[in-house]
């Protein structure tokens, strides 16, 4: 493996954590997923290269 991909809610604490850990955001999809209450939320997609 040389590349990891993930997605998380845009603007969330998780997104900040991933950014601090060296992940790079490569896009946002509006309304991609719903939160536990059923509200559609934007989703950020991130990648990280492995050594």
From TrEMBL:
It comes from the Bacteria. This is Acetyltransferase. It comes from Actinoallomurus spadix. The lineage of its organism: Bacteria, Bacillati, Actinomycetota, Actinomycetes, Streptosporangiales.
């Amino acid at each position: 493996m040389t590349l990891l991909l993930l997605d998380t809610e845009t603007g969330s604490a998780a997104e900040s954590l991933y950014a601090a850990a060296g992940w790079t955001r490569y896009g946002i999809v509006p309304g991609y997923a719903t939160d536990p209450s059923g509200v559609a939320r934007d989703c950020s997609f991130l990648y990280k290269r492995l050594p």
